[in-house]
Amino acid sequence: MLGKPESRSQTGILERFTLTWNRSRFFGASRFTRCGSLPRFHLIAICSSVGRQGSAFRVNALTSAESRRPRTGLTIVTSDEPIPVTPGLTVRITFGPMFGFDAGCHAREAIRISRFGKTYSGPSSPWWYSARDLYRLMQQVMPPETTVARLCRDLGFDIHDNRIARQLRRCDAEALLQRLRENNPPVPPERLGMLGPSASGERHYAIKSSTTGLHDGAKIPYVTEAWAECTRSENRGHGTARLQLLLNRTPSLAAVVVNSRSKELILQGCNLYRLVQGPGTGHYNITLSIIAPYIQLANDGKEPCLAPFSEAIAEVLRKACSAAHRAMEKPARKCTIKDAAWQVMAKAYSAASGDGRYPANARQIMYAPGPTS
Predict the structure, then answer these.
(1) How far is 239 from 261, CA to CA, in rounded Å?
(2) Cβ atoms of residues 76 and 69 within 8 Å
(3) Under CATH, what is the fold of the domain 190-327?
């Protein structure tokens, strides 16, 4: 549900814009857990951006409402008040005046996208963690007396282990991860779901599902999709491209710059530099979607690292953009001398032969179109 502007200055300039995202449950993943119910909104990244812009956000959870203002990595609770009992969670974000775009457009796009495709509702997988990841998770689990069995059960794994999770050493975490992987096969990437061809209108579509191995040993399945449309470029060999990035069904503010050159696209951004051979020069409008239980961050600014998905990204962009280039409207073909001759040939012969009563040679036919055209 989108809100309306909260306030205006005395000069009538819009200073703050409020939008509300309603969810039936809390976010499916945190900093340490890689849950099967893929998150659609990344609260940490949102709060980081809100804090930098001098803004605030308000959280309504069941029976109380808190207003918070991020500051230098910390979140200050500015108010806490009771509200009528309301199921679910509502996050209301108030953007400051430094935002130079329609802040609600990303929320509206996320709501629209949520109506398409299939989603994954299964449990987490031990293949999505490295031993280091599992060890960090056990050190952060709450309450402190949580057992390994209880932690694994919350993640969707069945194991009998009554040791206290926080007391396990790194080597214990490695042995535990090995046991979990032996009892739980990897999740096929196709089960993660997809948005589908209709999620972005009538544009040309391509999809690729695969699994990538991270350097720490985690095996991450993913689904990459691309939609593209193309119009003709006026400059031979030079075009433009606009790319919208979707991460787990959520529009991302991270920028991937794309340039269209002769028979190739050049991608740069989000720890990705790639040449995509094939698509011809044109003006492209591209949407790229990545669905995965875990996407690494490239830096402290919450920018996603797309390098592990590089091959799949190149493949879907090559297919979608090449199809879009082939299907774009072709310019009118110039009229050749042969085309002009065939347009008047029948009338010229008729005039030179007296409507077919007499024979006519080529020279007579050549002069005939003058008075008859």
Answers:
(1) 6
(2) yes
(3) Ribosomal Protein S5; domain 2 (3.30.230)
